[in-house]
Sequence to fold (451 residues):
Amino acid sequence: MTSLSLLLLFSLLLHQPPPISAAKSPPLFPKESLPTKSGYLPINPTTNSAIFYTFYEAQKPNSSLSKTPLLIWLQGGPGCSSMMGNFYELGPWRVSQTPNVEQVALEPNSGSWNRLFGLLFLDNPIGVGFSIAETPEEIPRDQDGVAKHLFAAVTAFVGLDPSFKTRPIYITGESYAGKYVPAIGYYVLKKNAQLPPSKQLNLAGVAIGNGLTDPATQVATHAVNAYFSGLINDKQKNQLEKLQDEAVELTRKGNWSAATDARNAVLHSLKNMTGLATLYDFRRLIPYETSLVTKFLSPPEVKKSLGVSESMVYEECSDVVGAALHEDVMKSVKYMVEFLVKESKVLLYQGHCDLRDGVVSTEAWVKEMKWEGIEKFMEAERKVWRVNGLLAGYVQKWGSLSHAVVLGAGHLVPTDQPVNSQAMIEDWVLERGVFASEQVGDVCLGFQGEI
Fold:
């Protein structure tokens, strides 16, 4: 072989691409998608138990950060992780998976709730998700225990940055957080009255999505809701009503564990009668794919990026925490909402395709609220709500209480309608569009684009 041939061969070898096995794969958690802050918030000075959090600062705040609202998100369950809300619903990045591709990936969420506001996700109660319960005995058994831990965690978070102290706080959540949200809101207002201003939390309002709040009233609506939706016939309606009556009676007697089992029997029977893939959204042919979040959060490198021990095993929902709160399920917190609506502002919203904790379920207990404004609220006009000129749902508002129905959405409203849910939360917090205190004429345009 001539020297020229050798030189050409050497040149070709030098410029060969590396073998596929040696190519560096993209990071599971790209730098731009990392939270602003994440880690642990202590809830008890005498134990190592702590609530895990991820915080995302506002992307495009329309005021100084010291005045920019802070939204807190709590998942339901009881016992499910708020990382589901973070990476599957309303966080700035959502997990996705391309068909026939094993690896999951993150992609930007156009409907994230931190567009204008700071957004804090809390794995609550302890023992849920990446949160730490040093002993099972420390896991709360009721909403008072939940609220005490949340108050400690939020107070610790506010202490991380001096600018957090002056920012208005809005506590939000869905499903079983229909109890967590009122519980922490109620606790904050009661606690603030006993504390000097420097130690108070700046609570401005609460928002509950598809919430379980007054369970006995809500469980009694399933049969009639399914019947008039055309999903069951009259015979099945009667069968379901008998099961509902049992759950209500057990609740009335304070037989809490049996009442919870009875409610589960109602939901199980309804699912069997309808044959639906999920009661969370009667349109779906398969359930929500929340397992993608578990897949994303399992690799050591992702846990390390979030400040979590690589030895921790992430569970979407904790059976241990669910069992601890079993007797709490059928206890009502309606009285807490009644207190909150007098002292702050309240948003109740539901996806109209949810058969578990949907529109009919919520309206049943709302009309029974003991609040001086309830009659005027019930008489208030239900406005047609549009986002970017398109029908998004309906909003009824009077005074400090707002109720929104989100069309084209099931139990996980931000997953199903990301842009509309973003418009809803932004307009409610900022009191504009259909959520404005004063409405001009009959035209309520809602969110019209970036500020």
